Amino acid sequence: MESYRHRIMDDLLKRKLQAKGAVLIEGPKWCGKTTTAEEIAASKVLLARTDAKESFRSLLEIDMDTALAGAAPMLIDEWQTVPKLWDAVRYTVDHRRTMGQFILTGSAVPDKKAEEEREHSGTGRFGWLTMRPMTLFESGESNGSVSIGELFTAQEDILETNKLKLQDIAFLICRGGWPMAVGLPEEAALEQAFDYYDAVTKEDIVKVDGVKRTSERAQRLMRAYARHQGTQASIATLREDLKNNDSATLDDNTISSYLDALKKIFVVEDLPAWNPNLRSKTAIRTADTRYFVDPSIATAALGLGPKDLINDLKTMGFFFEAMCIRDLRVFAEALNGKVYHFRDKSGLECDAVIHLRNGRYGLIEIKLGGKSLIDEGAATLNSLEAQIDTTRMKSPSFKMILTATGEHSYRRPDDGIYVVPIGCIKL
Hints:
Blueprint: H1 8-17, E1 22-26, H2 33-40, E2 43-46, H3 50-62, H4 64-67, E3 74-77, H5 85-96, E4 102-106, H6 112-117, E5 126-130, E6 146-147, H7 148-151, E7 159-161, H8 166-175, H9 186-207, H10 215-227, H11 235-245, H12 252-264, H13 295-301, H14 306-310, H15 313-334, E8 337-343, E9 349-356, E10 361-367, H16 371-387, E11 398-403, E12 408-411, E13 418-421, E14 425-426
Parallel strand pairs: 1-4, 1-5, 2-3, 3-4, 6-14, 10-11, 11-13
Antiparallel strand pairs: 7-12, 8-9, 9-10, 12-13
Helix pairs in contact: 1-2, 8-13, 9-10, 9-13, 10-11, 10-13, 13-15
């Protein structure tokens, strides 16, 4: 495709296909799963259309070999709508005994009934990848002058220029990382997030798993979730928020059901707690931190635009943090790592920890910018580093303050902490 923008997922998918007979790409709708898969697929079956789904389902039951006879790698989009596909693909992979045969994409986790129809787990035959909305580097807003991957291997002084201003960041938070929004005029680009929110609350959450839900309840809950994004808010806290801000409330079981549904369609993606070895005996909080998969979902749920964020920098800070977490997750997984959040019972908190499979990790504080906030973030990072028991685990590979503003990225001479605007970051 002439307009295709390179995604970090491109290289991950190629790598996975070399090691597995089939690769499953999961993630929210509109994030680019199908488009990315089409770039490498030699044949495809797109099951989003009802007529195509029913035709393929019938062919699969009559003649499995013919249904799956497309050139490899064969893309099957929205595979979860035909649950019997799983075992059919597994059987075919086993009998062909070659790698890179199938790419399955889906924007929803199969429901319980579909799971029960599976006879096999797919272990050893399937590889899994999670795709998210675009990072700022993928959408072309970050200049990519500072590599997260290189920070793990080389401690060097940096001095790179950042061109993004606070107004730009506010727009990018509200626009989100939806590929179809990139490059559109500002008003049209912002509308994509509202359309996504409408699709989730009016259609997707209603039909995800056969459980009866209403759009109005979904909207109320997503507004409450948006107000608590970036916190460890409990079900009880969400319920209290609903009581204070809406005319009707939901009980705990109903809230849990709606949250489970939002997870199944990859709308919310909580951040797990990091549990390092510490010198002190301070207890570590283990609750997950609540995030939408893209910050624009939260702003759309609350009806906010870029000007609203500029006029309320405290709120903007929470949403900026969510955007950073989105991008860091993409980078971390490409490096065979994960992103975590740290908080102990004394109140010491670190916004993001990238922990790699090989044991290396980086500590990251997220701030809008300005000397006082940067100094505050540095104090937090240094305090956490001092508590880590380096006799039982490695020292951090790097410490970084990820900012919204600032003309340059640089390394502080006194403590070696990197200060990097989001407009400079890449994998």
